[in-house]
Amino acid sequence: MREIDVARISEAVAQLAVAACCDLGEDVLAFFRSAQDREESAVGRSVFRQLLENARIAAEERMPLCQDTGFAVVFLEIGQDVHLVGGDLEAAVDEGVRRGYTEGYLRKSVVADPFGERKNTGDNTPAVLHTRLVPGEQVRIVFAPKGGGAENMSALAMLKPAQGRPAVVDFVVDTVAKAGPNACPPLVVGVGVGGTFEKVAYLAKKALLREIGSLNPVPRLARLEDELEARCNDLGIGPQGLGGRITVMDVFVEEFPAHIASLPVAVNIQCHAARHKEVVL
């Protein structure tokens, strides 16, 4: 049994918050570089050059990639042979968020009483925390700040099983089409299929953590991802909604068994600032 003080988790979350908001992943940067040559629209190619310059400035000046530094979404994988000591885990995560957003001068975007007073909590807490127990004696932390613009364009549907794969495809493409420029394309599209109402939304969110260009290990899901990517790019929305070939960077599908009476599908949209960082303790 390995002991880990939750103070280490607070410190890790604080560091990840700043890194995620200031340092775009190499997979996204590589996509932008490649897209400069592949995008058919001259305006679109200019957008990719500007996105690369923005990422460079953010990394060098330790400034956020975007003014919307997001809701703090934290994925924890806790080894079964880990004993957490020193305090409450959720409080430790929130302390890390509080410290990262305050000391890193990141915008605090969380409000309490969401359909009432909507008063800012002042420190971007509480975090949205997804926790799994896994074998081993390590703790893996993934920090994914989620901006409001892209999140607002996400959607969930409880389809009829008889509607099948065609309805899933149409729902995903229609969701991207409705998002248009509002989600700041080029997008990463996370798709969840199966499970229950809450599970399918989690699957769509988790799908966004995959690396751009990665292949789904399930062949039929890989084919579905390719079809969805092609259909979404055929929409012609283009970078920043200004027209062009590249509307999405990638589409990722996560699947879970479903009830015999249900076919849930969720689409979680991520903007071009596809931010997430991780560490293993």
Range of helix content: 25-40%
**Major sheet: order of its strands?**
6-2-7-12
What is the average per-residue confidence, as pLDDT, rounded to a whole number? 97
Oligomer: single chain
Instruction: Count every beta strand, where a strand is a DSSP E run of 2 or more residues.
Output: 12
> Helix-strand pattern, N to C?
EHHHEEHEEEEHEHEHHEEE
Give structural notes.
By secondary structure, the chain is an alpha/beta fold. It has two domains: 2-20 and 65-146, no CATH class; 149-274, no CATH class. 40% of the residues lie in helices and 26% in strands. It is built from eight helices and twelve strands. The strands form four sheets. The chain has a four-stranded mixed beta sheet with strand order 6-2-7-12. A four-stranded mixed beta sheet has the order 8-11-9-10. The chain has a two-stranded parallel sheet with strand order 1-3. Helix 1 (6-22) runs parallel beside helix 4, helix 2 packs antiparallel against helix 3 (42-61) and helix 6 (164-179) packs parallel to helix 8. The longest helix is centred in the first third of the chain and has 20 residues, at 42-61. It is globular.
